[in-house]
Structure formats: structure tokens, C-alpha cells
Amino acid sequence: MARRLTLTEFIIEEQRMHPGATGDFTGLLSDIALAAKLIAREVRSAGLGDILGASGSTNVSGDEVKKLDLFADETLVNVLERGGHLAGMASEEREGPIPIPEEYPAGKYVVLFDPLDGSSNIDANVGVGTIFSIFGRAGEGARGGLEDLLQPGNRLLASGYVIYGSSTVFVYTTGFGVHGFTLDPTIGEFILSHDAIETPERGKILSANEGNLSLWPEGARAYVSYLKEEDSASGRPYRSRYVGSLVVDFHRNLLHGGIFLYPEDSRNPKGKLRLLYEAAPLAFVAEQAGGLASTGRDRILDVVPSSLHQRVPLAIGSAKDVRLYERFVRGDRP
Asked: Which helix (H) or strand (E) holds 113?
């Protein structure tokens, strides 16, 4: 049996496809992978140490911060700021841009990340994950300032996520397909396990927090009711699968097909999920795998951010499922 490529080897092979590449981008992805290994180690042993539970604080979005949130956030910052690849960073857990200390060299990229998506589930041993985005610098001002960070998803150079679950899986795209790697703990390396992922054009899974159904707009409620109807010709009813960790629900649907739905509601009229830390990076992955991501009205990757913690509605997954949802939002039902 041929030996499978490691993540590092795969990234280097991709680098060779781009004449003039300096290796900075390769080094940055390798730094993210290193931080992911450190976080994975802590998640695996979380129940044995004093790192489960709430930290006693809330983040800039008003969410309760878990101890593992803080660990993941600090780990990513500490690893990435030293690499010399970044001009700046932003984290879902912090209010403003994260500057690179002057003692470290500044690079030509910026990274935004959700350090531990789904952390409210960690005490129950449900999968959680890290989501990241990589942009090139956008301006000539202060390095890593808002001009560099507030870019639409259609300018992404790379994005991806890491799932810490039954295994640790690293999935990313640089705009040339989507590839997944599983951590082999015996050698400490991510090994190619899901090459050239393509999501089904239509799925059979609905992932949504239906506990909020009464708060949703009429089009979203009608869409969910439609998916629950019995109609074998169109593959209905859909199966309901929702664990409350966006990255986990998204990964399952990416592989098997379906739609993740988190529309705006009467409590969150602009949506609940963060554009820069959750929606845009996963939208880039979804589109590279043949899927779609939408607010219900607009392509997620075309939404221009106005603030670091901007929220948006999100429908993401198989292309035909997302397009059908957009029809329901417009009032154009089958």
C-alpha cells in the first residue's frame, strides 16, 4: 500500500504548483496545524484537568467564555505571532485586531479565527473545532489594521477548520479543491484521508436549531415544513441532524450532503453567526467542494464586512438545497 502524504508534504506539493512561491504561506499553514495539535491534546485530556467549565467571563459577542476557549485562543496567538508570516490577527474571543509584537517580524498575511467553535458542548464530550481564514494584506496602513481584516470572503486565500472529535481532522482549501487530513497520534502528523472532497449536489440532512422555529421568518419556517413532507420523488422527508457545533454539523453535511440553516430571527434580526469567523471561511470551503453558502438573499462570500464581529444569517451546504432555500425566502416556492 502506498504511503499517504502528510499535511506538510501535501502543502509543499501545492506550493510547487505556484512559481515564485516563497514558502511563507506553507509556513503559515504549518503553524496553524501545530496550534491545532496543541489544542487537540488539551481537548483529549480536558476531563482530567481543571480546564472544563466556564471561565467566569463573556466575550465581545456576549457569549460565555469556557476555559478551553481561552486556552485555544492563547495557543493560536502564541504560535502564529512568532512565525514571521503575519501582519496581524483577529479572534472571535477578542474585541479588536491582535497586533504582532514589534520583536517579531511582520509578514504579508492576516488570519482570523474562531478558536473553539461549539465550546458550549465541550463538557458533554461533543465534538468542537477551530475555524480559520487567511487573507493577504489589503492596504498600506498600520500592519494588521482593520483595512486588512475587514475583507469579503471572495478575497480569501485559504480557509479551513479542525475538528476535535472521535479523531482530529484538518480540512482546508486554497481555492483548488478541499482536502482533509486525520491526525495520527502515533507519529504526531496529519495524514491525507479525504482527498478532493466533493459535496453531493443535493442532500437528505437538515441541520437547524428547530427550538427557535417560532422566532424565524415565514420563509424559513415554510422551508423546514416542506423538507418534512413525505414525497419520495424529491427525497423527502429529510433527516434531522443537529448537534449545536457548527463546524461538526457542517463537516457531516459536507461529506454526506444536506443543509445547515441558521436564519435571522426576532431576537437576532441580523443573524447569529459571525461573518468573518464562521460564515465566510466555511462558505469558501463549501463552494470549493461544489456547495453554496447564502444569507438567504446574498452569496456569503460577497458580503462586505463593516465590523470584526458582524453577524449574518447562514444557509450552507449542498447547492440545490441552498438554492431552494433562497426560493422560499423570496416567496417563490415549488
From this structure: strand 109-117
| Percent of the chain whose predicted confidence (pLDDT) is above 90 | 77
Q: Are residues 164 and 296 in the same domain?
A: no
> How far apart (Å, rounded) are the C-alpha atoms in residues 246 and 95?
21
Among 175, 194, 213, give the residue marking a domain's end.
194
Give the least confident one: 36-45, 84-93, 193-202: 36-45
Active-site positions read 63, 69, 92-93, 114, 116-117, 278
Strands 205-208 and 259-262, how do they pair? Answer: parallel
* Domain range for 295: 205-330
Considering the domain architecture, whether residues 180 and 308 belong to the same structural domain is answered as no
Residue 64 has pLDDT above 90, yes or no: no
Nearest to 117 by CA among 81, 185, 49, 171: 171
| pLDDT-based confidence at residue 145 (cuts at 50, 70, 90) | confident
Number of domains in the chain: 2
Residue 41 pLDDT greater than 70, yes or no: yes
Same domain, 14 and 158: yes
CA–CA distance from 316 to each of 41, 262, 275 (Å)? 30, 9, 13
CB 185 within 8 A of CB 272: no
Element (H, E) at 173: strand 168-173
Question: Tens digits of per-residue pLDDT, 210-223?
Answer: 999 999 999 999 99
Residue 94: how many CB atoms within 10 A of its CB? 16
Neighbours of 7 (CB within 10 A): 23
pLDDT, one tens digit per residue, over 255-267 is 999 999 999 999 9
The tally of CA atoms less than 13 A away on the side-chain side of residue 160 is 24
The last residue of one of the domains, among 152, 173, 194, is 194
* Same domain assignment for residues 11 and 136: yes
Residues 209 and 170 in one domain: no
